[in-house]
């Protein structure tokens, strides 16, 4: 926990309380702050006698060798980048837990058959470059290196001091901080026996039930879109509503509709980014661009929400400007598609057994009730590693279920419990 | 008309057709382009033997002396700044008409009792600095110089290449292009006998009725607000709708409601600027700022729309986040208030007589039907001059009633008719 906050010195975000650690984080992927924490990560893992490699997406792999060079390492992985108004736990906990495991193993002189690795994945958040988990996606050969290298940072985040005036691509940003590695980004070049990830739940289930550990069995589906609404600029003071093709008004109706449709199917639909042009008080905006994030427990449900919204958005666009025969148009671009995932039973078993063991001396009658199976609402790099190697995750509770917020918080106790579980899970897996 | 397009060389906007003049304008107030056209304006009016002064708001007054030094000049005024995606007529026509009048008077050797002046008012649009007509407002002593000098440029427009990275204030922008004059900005230091303004209608009434001239008798009321919605940043993938205080969702509902309420009272309500923070695909925005422009034919109607929207927006904010006991809040700031205006009967009469005379040889039976009284939907510097001196305006038709758009257009014929009417109106007023 000391180290956890130590690593947060690079990229303090918003201060929300008086304690030294009462700040959020603003460490966008491949920013100067991200470079500093990466340098620290490499130095620290080297001091722990790891072999460190950096691949073409800037993913950093630190491996503590095992007895047998022919057995690939079992990895603990997560990410050190954050949201623009992020917290101190999302991702950071998972990487720091890995370092803690390495230290403990060194301290105990623990030997493993295969090595034990810690990986820091690049741009997991998708906050600066709008594809989440993109670098584990390239590693899994689910996303092409060319596509990933060419991806541009989002305009809203580009206005932060970390960004240049012209939008950076992932490749230019990797070069700028000197983290464009030479190792090919692939599970073939950086093989793993398995991938475990410790994360805060980011939702309210564990904390509201007073449970200690979530054994993550699955991850819900999601799709990210960029949409443009094309209407017509005109004067706000002289243009009757019937004579407008107001792209922002169409947007407002679409956003209201998106929640209705998603809710009716037990799904979520959210807009995080919106830009209206030209952006003048007395001009009706003729162009609106926005992001749409649709999620649901089943891939088919997300597809259904999309299908219904495509029809509804077309109808909303057609109505706005019909009076002048120049209705709004709406264009969709799919940026990212992550179908629902079910994790590997062997990994789930290792986590379940480890969790049961770790909580077994808790002062309650039924300690097993402190551990529960859970589905992840958020995406994680484990989604992509699961395409290539046995994978699963461990959740700990977080305050109010709040995440992507400066006040994101988990107790030191819960963090320590999580680290104990992941340590045991890795050792159990190695011994299987 | 040649001159009209000549002066457009500084600040070409979006090209929409193949002809050399088929572009819009992007000449934000106090930009480099604005400086160039100002320099041209001063040089041109000096060549026409005018005395030129610049006041503390950068307003430029060019006066062709009359017979009597003790009689203040009758002015023709408008503005050379444009919207970010503006056209070639809004404001520009009015200033260029003034220059055309000066030329014609010189050519004809016409003498007047008082002088004849042309004024270019600064930042009429309110597009860069979000108070429209601010500099005629200071001149009329309706807005304080301190407030105007301290006004910051809007963020959406600040991202245009004309602006520095830190937002400029009006004062710093005036200094930067060397147009912070020494003459106090006041009707006392730059007196006028009267103010006439020629403008495109910016609405559909004249063009759809096939009429040539609008005798503007009044200007509708409007109020500009800046609103903030304060919610809570949170994760889009893990936060149920009931657990959100989604400031952008609240915004969407407010915008939909604003149109309903305004329409029910025969008014307009429009949002031109919106910003959502932090601006990341997978973070529910916790902060939204937007502009709200409410207009209506009567001051009281605008006040009624505001009153109803204040209640409705509070209710919408209260509903969003109620489930977590942390509902959204909404804050209003009034940036600008322009009550309905009725112009001066003497000026209206001069314009009516001049218009009737100019159209009298048109090839229709009832030439008087080509001229009609009209209310202005947009604000103009004449609103503020009318507080201190007799004022009125002349409208000509524009294509589709479209304005604040690159394709804004009036025929050369209609522009020439407008110039003839304003020339006669000024001479008639001088002779009264
Ligand atoms: N865990 C997390 O916040 N990941 C970011 C990707 C997502 O939006 O789910
Ligand atoms: N004429 C004009 O577009 N003026 C700008 C002020 C307004 O929004 O009405």
Overall geometry of chain A comes to: globular
Residue share in helices of chain A? 25-40%
Bound molecules: N-(aminocarbonyl)-beta-alanine
Interface with most residues: A-B, 75 and 76 residues
* Count of alpha and pi helical runs of chain A: 13
Distance from N terminus to C terminus of chain A (CA atoms, Å) equals 30 Å
Percent strand of chain A equals 15-25%
Q: Give the C-alpha Rg of chain A.
A: 23 Å
Give the averaged pLDDT of chain A, no decimals. 95
Backbone structural class of chain A: alpha+beta
Count of strand segments of chain A: 18
Give the uncertain stretches of chain A in residue-range form: none
The largest sheet of chain A, given as strand count, sense and whether it forms a barrel, is: 9 strands, mixed
Multimeric status of the protein: homodimer
Provide structural commentary.
Two copies of one chain form a homodimer. With 432 residues, chain A is α+β, with helices and mostly antiparallel strands. Chain A contains 13 helices and 18 strands. In chain A, strands 3, 4, 5, 6, 7, 8, 16, 17 and 18 form a nine-stranded mixed beta sheet that branches. In chain A, strands 9, 11, 12, 14 and 15 form a five-stranded antiparallel beta sheet that branches. Chain A has a two-stranded antiparallel sheet with strand order 1-2. In chain A, helix 9 runs antiparallel to helix 10 and helix 11 packs across helix 13. The longest helix of chain A has 21 residues. The interface between A and B is large, with 75 and 76 residues. One N-(aminocarbonyl)-beta-alanine (URP) sits at the interface of chains A and B. Chains A, B: One of its GO terms (molecular function) is hydrolase activity, acting on carbon-nitrogen (but not peptide) bonds, in linear amidines. Chains A, B: Keywords: Hydrolase. Chains A, B: This is Peptidase M20 dimerisation domain-containing protein. Chains A, B: Belongs to the peptidase M20A family. Chains A, B: InterPro entries: Amidase_Cbmase, Bact_exopeptidase_dim_dom, Peptidase_M20, Peptidase_M20_dimer.
């Amino acid at each position: 926990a000391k180290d956890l906050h130590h690593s947060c010195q690079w990229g303090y975000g918003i201060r929300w309380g008086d304690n030294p650690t009462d700040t959020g984080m603003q460490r966008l992927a491949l920013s100067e702050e991200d470079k500093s924490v990466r340098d620290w990560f490499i130095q620290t893992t080297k001091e722990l006698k790891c072999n460190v490699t950096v691949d073409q997406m800037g993913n950093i792999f630190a491996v503590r060798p095992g007895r047998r060079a022919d057995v690939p390492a079992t990895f603990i992985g997560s990410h050190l980048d954050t949201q623009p108004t992020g917290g101190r736990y999302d991702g950071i906990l998972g990487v720091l837990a890995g370092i803690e495991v390495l230290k403990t193993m060194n301290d105990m002189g623990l030997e493993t058959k295969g090595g034990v690795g810690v990986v820091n994945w690049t741009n997991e958040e998708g906050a600066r470059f709008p594809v989440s988990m993109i670098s584990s996606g390239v590693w899994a050969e689910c996303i092409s290196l060319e596509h990933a290298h060419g991806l541009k940072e989002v305009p809203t985040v580009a206005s932060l001091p970390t960004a240049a005036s012209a939008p950076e691509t992932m490749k230019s940003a990797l070069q700028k901080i000197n983290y464009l590695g030479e190792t090919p980004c692939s599970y073939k070049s950086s093989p793993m026996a398995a991938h475990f990830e410790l994360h805060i739940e980011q939702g309210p289930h564990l904390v509201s039930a007073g449970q200690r550990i979530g054994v993550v069995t699955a991850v819900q589906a999601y799709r990210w879109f960029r949409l443009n609404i094309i209407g017509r600029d005109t004067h706000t003071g002289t243009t009757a509503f019937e004579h407008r093709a107001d792209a922002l008004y169409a947007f407002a109706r679409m956003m209201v509709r998106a929640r209705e449709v998603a809710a009716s199917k037990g799904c979520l639909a959210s807009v995080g980014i919106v830009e209206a042009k030209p952006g003048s008080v007395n001009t009706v905006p003729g162009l609106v661009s926005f992001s749409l994030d649709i999620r649901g427990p089943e891939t088919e449900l997300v597809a259904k929400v999309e299908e219904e919204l495509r029809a509804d958005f077309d109808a909303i666009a057609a109505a706005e400007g019909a009076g002048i025969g120049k209705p709004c148009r709406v264009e969709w671009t799919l940026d990212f598609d992550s179908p629902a995932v079910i994790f590997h039973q062997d990994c789930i078993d290792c986590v379940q057994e480890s969790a049961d063991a770790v909580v077994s001396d808790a002062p309650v009658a039924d300690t097993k009730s402190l551990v529960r199976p859970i589905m992840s609402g958020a995406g994680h790099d484990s989604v992509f590693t699961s395409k290539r190697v046995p994978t699963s995750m461990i959740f700990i509770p977080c305050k109010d279920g709040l995440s992507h917020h400066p006040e994101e918080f988990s107790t030191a106790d819960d963090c320590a419990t999580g680290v104990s579980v992941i340590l045991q899970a890795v050792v159990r897996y190695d011994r299987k």
